[in-house]
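job 3f2a | input accepted
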Amino acid sequence: GSIKVTKTVSGAPASASDKEYTFTVTNSDGKWITADGALSDTSVTHTIKAGGEVVIDNLLFDTYKVTEVTGDAVKITNYTFDTANSITASNPIEISTPGEVKTFELKNYYTQDKGKLTINKVVTKNDSSIPVPTSFHFAVKNEEGKYITDQNGTIGTTTAVFPFNLAQDGSVTISNLPIGKYTIEEQDARVTGYTLTVSGIEETATVTKDGDTAKTVTNHYETPKVRAGDLTITKVQAEGSASISSEITFPIGVAFDKAGSYCVDGSFVAFTANTPKIFNVKIGQKIKRSEERR
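job 3f2a | predicted structure (294 res):
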């Protein structure tokens, strides 16, 4: 008689379609069966691919068992072998009639390894009056350049979409992402008249099996420094006047028509528009305002 072994594989990637699986056939005495049905005292394995079949002929009347070699032999990168739902060993198969063919199907089930990616949004600014956006829009794409379209990890096309909207200090978690590297992109969030520095998206995010990878994207807004021109004030003694002690100070008021922090003698001093600041200077001493204002 004969035993025909077939192979079904479900859930595996297309890249593994050419993978070979191995199995053994043994009789009731525990002897191994060769490809032509002969008996062997040493281990003999047979190979089969998904969708394939192997027929072993010339079997004596007996009971036989088909057993797949598992462990490393069934591993597929980034996929988990589903032991509970797979069929990797037969019950005793009896050959008792001349010419009969018994069929047994080996079934392997796989699930793709997946994880989560959480994006956290932080906004900082050096001036509370800066009108920063109220929401920020993000895109996530995989290593193939395809974009994720929703929080359930649905993979779309290579056309950019920005489905994840976050408020300041908001967060979003994307589930069911196949493990691997992902790139986070933020839609342009610049504010006219202010500088923007974005950090946290320079490197890819690596999603691991059953893990939750967190990435914090920070937008820092600043009031830019403005060229304001130089101003130097020097206190001198009038020519021909009586000698004045070098220890005597004279109050000098300085005002600017625009509010801001101006650099005076190496330190920034806050000015209110059109309101003088008083500086006490000695003969020969200078007050210098730098060209930068912030």
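job 3f2a | The radius of gyration is 39 Å.
job 3f2a | closed
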